[in-house]
Every structure is written in structure tokens, then in C-alpha cells.
Amino acid sequence: MTDTRRRVKVYTLNEDRQWDDRGTGHVSSCYVERLKGTSLLVRAESDGSLLLESKINPNTAYQKQQDTLIVWSEAENYDLALSFQEKAGCDEIWEKICQVQGKDPSVDITQEVVDESEEERFDDMSSPGLELPPCELNRLEDLAELVASSLPSPLRREKLALAVENEGYIRKLLELFRVCEDLENREGLHQLYEIIKGIFLLNRTALFEVMFSDECIMDVIGCLEFDPALPQPRRHREFLTKTARFKEVIPISDPELRQKIHQTYRVQYIQDMVLPTPSVFEENMLSTLHSFIFFNKVEIVGMLQDDEKFLTDLFAQLTDEATDDDKRQELVNFLKEFCAFSQTLQPQNRDAFFKTLSNMGILPALEVILGMDDVQVRGAATDIFSYLVEYNPSMVREFVMQESQQNDDDILLINLIIEHMICDTDPELGGAVQLMGLLRTLLDPENMLATANKTEKTEFLSFFYKHCMHVLSAPLLANTTEEKPSKDDFQTAQLLALILELLTFCVEHHTYHIKNYIINKDILRRVLVLTASQHAFLALCALRFMRRIVGLKDEFYNRYIMRNFLFEPVVKAFRNNGSRYNLLNSAMIEMFEYVRVEDIKSLTAHIVENYWKSLEDVDYVQTFKGLKLRYEQQRERQDNPKLDSMRSILRNHRFRRDARTLEDEEEMWFNTDEDDLEDGEAVVPPSDKMKSEEDLMEPISKFMERKKLKDTEDKEVLGKSSLSGRQNPSFKLSFSGSTKTSLASPPSSASLNPGSPGSPGSPGSGARSSPPMTAVTTKGGLVGLVDYPDDDEEEEEEEDGESKEDALPPTKKSKLSS
């Protein structure tokens, strides 16, 4: 019994002025040595961990609300609340707090909140309690002025609240309201509006409990109808009594629950519709009103959730074929509102709530409802489904996979969702957009679970691609059988755009399953038919789909694109768009530019070999010329493998400013004794030593001649100076990056590390190190062979290196042998 009486929930108020549930436990009060005082302790009922340890401070203002709540502030922006299961437990702890603070337990607040200056505080504390004028018609103006003057001061607000509460003033005011309304005393009604509005801003639970009682609440709403700023009074009471009807779709046997539902609806109406929008300064004054509604909703959900008979009847009638349509619509609307109320719950409570609904069979019930013809019922069912998916997508996936073992594909819940998305009659496809978002959540691997026994991603995606993907892609396949879309109206285009968005998401997140589906069903070809649509947004969706595929740089996809010539519709759309500078034009150019920049060799060759004639005259961007250049460079490497190996040698053995360890093969090469080489002999890596000098130079000569005929764009640039001297010179490769300009090795003791002491390139050595440059040399000077893109920052230093070469000793100079 003690455990039940002391059972509490701990709440903290967040920055949005909403209460966060910190857990359920049992409260006790005892002396804590560390805190040097009597403290409130709450230990979690699940594991006994400490949820709250709060010293009862003699100066802290504790408030008792609604018989089962104790609320207080521990810091300027840190409010706490204990919600007791039983009133007796709340009274027991309240007595302990009042005992520590030396207060009478009959009060609802233990301290007065003080924010004023010391002088104002002294004046207010020394003055007696606030005296209210008699509740008479001719004194309403005085009372309205008193309320208005008390609101800016927290102390005066508190005294006013105590006076109104202790004298039963609210009921007297409401009697006066009825008199004024009968007499049509408009001036008195306007003053009563200001008074009642001011009482709301006192932000006191005890007053709210009186105002929101069954006998008072409608008169309070009546007072708030007569806003002086409006020419005519509002008709809130008429709406609540005649228009708004409370429907018990399932009879509620608990009178307390029924009363709580009525009260919450009316108080929510007052907050949302009756009270004027609070100013920035008044917003915090209504925090108790927010809390009142919040805790009421928590209570309602808890009471309904605990009533098993109520929920059992609800789901039985929902799925009963004998239930008439009107009744079923009311049941679905109730369930939707029930789920909406659950959003006020904290995660632990919401988890228990949805678990209860799942055990009651909410998903099979939704499946039945979604199969009905009534559009409104289906819409409400979709909203309920969205609550379930957003909170626990794994629960929905598990149900769908279990269901597939018993039912045909046509009646699977997820296929019903896809069909409703496809068949949405709304011209703007509002419902379809919502359903597409739910499908995307269900298909997102990021929220799928992986355990030791099974992987949800593997199981669910295998299920989806086997049982559901053909339903999703059916409209796309049906509309792309020809070279142009069969139907190209706006609504169809919107639907196809939604489907493409989902498929694009799948390309990004489902590598294996979607790849098989696209290639086996030739999906990309069908999608690219949509580039001929008159709706630019649909053509862009199709391009985005292809761009995601190209962006994966997957050779399986690339071979599929080349085998089926799938760049053809893109090129065709590009030519049809002409030179118009629009989003379509930019999207297509960006895709080609991506292929060029990323150097996707297979696609580059495919595009140039098949579509160059259509693209060669495009000169307002350099993308296509750059593609052609990439292609030609690839061909040169294929035609001249020796030249390609030369490039790799030059690229791999350039002088580096940072220290590095040479590989074994490089060490062998550089350590070759120069004296072992005869004057004029070509120096080549060990792997090429057996080749004749003529074999080596033949591809280089061809390369030089070919380059002279072309104008390149600074990708790989030949030196512009031409060879002079003999007709058939043989070449020696040289590095002017150290005192050894030929590839002949320096002495084995010399270090090539540019930063090592005593090395030829170090500051202490005799010869100054020149910047690195790979070159073909003749007696007439240096001719650049290959200029790599990463050498731009070294160009100036290379020029300096050329001018200093003549200063090197003759034996160290590059030689040209005939």
C-alpha cells in the first residue's frame, strides 16, 4: 500500500514550456548528509536508480496543484513537478515540505515569489493583505483597476490571487455576470471581461480549478465573449453547446473520465480560441494553464489505456463487417484523436501506449479500414498509420513480413498504402505525398535494426523487392512503353515524380537489391523516356535518377548504360533543349562534367564514340571538348603502352620536397654507378634496360609530332620549343632536381632526401638544388615532355632551373648522343 501511495512521476519543464517525463518511481523524504538538509528522493521503480535528489530549501516556493501535483523551481529556468498516483501520498509529502519550511499544510503555496527591489519588497511585506472591493455593479470599475495594477508585480499578483481565492470571489463575479447579461449592461460586461482575463493571468491552479468546474466554466467563457475591442460579442457558448457535440462512440462507464474529457476540451478551446493571443510578456503568465491541459491529457490517455474492455470493444467494432459506415467513421476519428493525445506522452509512456494498441491488433484493423471505399475513413486511417510508422517503423515492418506468409501480395498492408498513393484523387496529390514519406521511412536502412540472429535490412528489403516493388513501379512502366510518355497530364507527372523520388532514394541506400531490379527490368531506359515530358520537373526527376546511378561509379551500372545506349535520350533531350540556359540544360551538362572530372573511362569512351557529332559544336562550355581530350588521352595510352610506362616512370620518380623512402626498384635505379654508363647511352629503369634506344624513342617521336598538330587545354602540355639540331637525335632523360641531372645514379653514399644534411640539395652542400623538372634534353636546351597538373605551382622554379643548368659541371650536364 505504501508503494502505491508514494508512486510518482517526475517531470521537468523544457525550453518550449512543455513537461518532460523523467520517469516513474517512489518518493521518500529523509536527511541527506551531503546536502546538509532534508531532501526529496525519487528512486526508479524499474531499476532503483536515483531519478531525483532535491533538498527542501526553506526559501523555495512549492505549489500544490490538483490534489496530486507538487510543483517548484530549483533555478531560474529549471521547474520540477511530482505527479502522485494517489492524493494521500501527495498530502504526506506536502506535509513534510511544509514542516521543513514551517508552513501550514492547508496552504497551496509555501512561499511568495519575489522579483522586486528590496524597497518595494519591504513596502509590500509590511502592508496588510489586499482588500477587494465589494462585488457589486457600481464597484466593477474599481476592481478592474485593482486587477490591472496588480499584474506587473509578482507580490501583488500573489496577494490578489489569495484574496480572490479565500473570499470565493469568482463565483460572486459570475453571478454578477449573469445579472449584467440579463440587463444588457454592456459597460459592466466589458469590465468583467478585463477582470476575468486578469484572473487568468494570475496563473494560479486553485483559481483554475474553480473556473473550470462544471458549474462555472460556461459562465467564464461567457465573460470572455465581451471583448471591448470587438463591436459585437463572440458566440463561444453557442458553439460549445449546439455545434460541438460529444460523441461516445464506445460508452464510457467511468464518470470521472467523461468529466475529464469534457473539461479538457473546453479548457483547450479557451486557450486556443477564447483568450486573446498573449503578448511576449504575458506568455509565461499562462504556463499553469498549459500544464493543466497537459496533465489532463496524460490522465485521459492513461485511463483509457487501462480500460481493456473499452479498447477491446473499440477494435471489435472497427473490424466488424456489420458496423455501418457512419459508426465506423466515428470509431476511426476517435482512434485518430486518441493517437493525437498520445503525442503529449513522453517516450516511455508512448512506447507502452503503442505496445498496447499493437497487442489489441491496430495494424490488422487499419488494413481492413484502408480497404474500404470511404475517402474520409481512409484519410483518418492514414493519419493513424503515420503515427505508428513515425514512432516505431520496425513494428510495422515485422507485421508486414509476417502477413506476407499468409496473404496474397494484393492485400498486403504495404501494397494497400502504395495503391492509395497511386490512386490519390487530389489534384495536388496531398495524400500521395504523405504516403510516399511513410514508405520512405519504412525503406530507410538508417532506422532498421540489426541483431545477432537476424538483420532487418536484409529481410525487409528482400521482402519488399519481391512482393511490393512491382506495385510501386507499375505506373512508371505503364506510361513509358513508347518513346514519349503515354499520359503527360499534370497529375500523372506529379505521381511519376513522386515514384522517381522514391526510386532515387532506393538507388542511394539499397545498393544490391535496386541494382538487380534496375538492370533486370531495364528501369533506367523507361525512366529516361520521361525526359521527353512537357513538364520540366518530371524530366529533371528522370535526370536526377540517372545522375545518382552515374554518381555511384559502379561498373555494373556503367556496362548496363553502354550496352543499352542510355545516354542517347539524354543527348537527344539536350539537343531539343537547344541553347536555352535553364535548369534542364545545367543538369545535363553537370552530368557530363561529372563523367569528365571523375575520369570515368568507360563512359567517356562511350559518349565520345557514339555522340561526339551531336555535341562537338557546343562551345559555350568546355565540358564536351574536355571529354574528347580525355578520350584521346586514353587512346594514346592504349596505342602506346611504352609511352604509358614512360609516364608512370616520370610520375613516380619526380623530386619531392617532403622526405620519403624510395622503393627497392627505385633504389636500384638511382644507385647505378654513372661510370658504368657510356657517354650518350640512354638511361632507362631496370625493367626496360633490354630495350633498344630506338624502340624507346619511337613512341616519343610520334607523340611529339601528334601534339604539334593539336591545341590542348593545359592538361598535358608539350613544350612549345621545337627540337633543333640533328635529324634523328637519341634522347637522354634527365632530372634537374639535384646536382645529377641525368638518370645516372649519384654515389651510393649520397642521399636523395632534400632535407638531409650534406646531401646535394641541402643548404650546406656546394651546389644549390634546382626545382624538379622532367624533360627531354638536347644540346640546344630543355624541351618539356610532360607537364602534370600538380606542377602548376612549380613552373616558375622550373624556369630558374633551366637558366642555371649551364653552370653545372660538364660531366653533370645532360647529354645528347647521336
Automatic annotation (TrEMBL):
Residues 721-741 have a biased composition (Polar residues). Belongs to the SMEK family. Residues 143-633 form the Serine/threonine-protein phosphatase 4 regulatory subunit 3-like central domain. Coiled coil: none annotated. Residues 671-818 are annotated as: Disordered. Residues 703-718 have a biased composition (Basic and acidic residues). Residues 671-681, 788-803 have a biased composition (Acidic residues). It comes from the Eukaryota. Residues 742-756 have a biased composition (Low complexity). GO terms for cellular component: nucleoplasm; protein phosphatase 4 complex. Regulatory subunit of serine/threonine-protein phosphatase 4. One of its GO terms (biological process) is DNA damage response. GO terms for molecular function: protein phosphatase activator activity. PANTHER family: ATP SYNTHASE GAMMA-RELATED, SERINE_THREONINE-PROTEIN PHOSPHATASE 4 REGULATORY SUBUNIT 3A. This is Serine/threonine-protein phosphatase 4 regulatory subunit 3. InterPro entries: ARM-like (IPR011989), ARM-type_fold (IPR016024), EVH1_PP4R3 (IPR055236), P4R3-like_central_dom (IPR006887), PH-like_dom_sf (IPR011993), PP4R3-like (IPR051137). Residues 5-101 form the PP4R3 EVH1-like domain.
